[in-house]
Structures are given as structure tokens and as C-alpha cells.
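Hello Y.,

Per our agreement to keep a running log of every chain we model this quarter, I'm adding this entry. I've kept the format consistent with earlier entries: sequence first, then predicted structure.
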Amino acid sequence: MKSKFLLPLACAALAGAVVVAPAVAQTVSRITFAKGNDNASVKGTIKGKAYRDYKLGVGNGQTMAVSLTGSSSVNFNILPPGSKGEAVYNSSVEGNDATGIKTVKGDYTIRVYLMGAAETSGKAYPYQLSVAVVNF
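Predicted structure for the entry above:
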């Protein structure tokens, strides 16, 4: 008698199972400044649902600026040290020029990505990311 109830329950559980696709691989690079400089620039392309992370080590109380040029379809977020995805700056909302970002010591992540139609177009979008960090 119990088996009559277990089989339908097992089938219902399997029917409701969700298959999760693996996360899109990301690329991580470190931004460094040439000796004597307080700024650097990197160029790249981004395509699909992939995103590109740039790590930048900063000190406590410095001020960071990030600017993105290239395709208007490309966006970036600035994630503070220890972030699980929470951004202190989102270019899709606030624009492609982040200035006056006060820092705490650690590695910040600048995440470059696409949204909407650009994300599903299959096209590679070029960009240039410029970063500056100064002491005040």
C-alpha cells in the first residue's frame, strides 16, 4: 500500500527538480599602476553573459575614479573588498564615470558586463576601462 503513494511522490519530486546550468566562466585580471603613476587603462571585449573582473588593490581613505568608454552596451559595477555581489557603484544606473569613490583597504573588483539585448546578441562589444586612485 505504501508503494502506491511513494511512486507518485517520487515522480512529482523529480518533475519539480530544477536543473541549474553552470555559471558562465569569468576572466579575472589585476590592474596595476606603472611606477610613479596613479592611473591605468585596460582594453577588452565582452560577449554574452560572461563578465570580466578587474582586481585593484587600494589603501584606506584613498579616492578612486573609474571611467568606461566604448560601446554604450557595456556596463561596470564597483564591488568593495569582501562583496558577495553588492556594488558601491553601478554604471547602468549612475553613468560611465564614477568619481569620488572613498576606499577602504583591500581589493576592489571592477566587473564589466552586458545587459539586455546586447547580452543575447552574440556580438563582442569593445571597451576601455580607465582607473585612477589618489591620496587626499
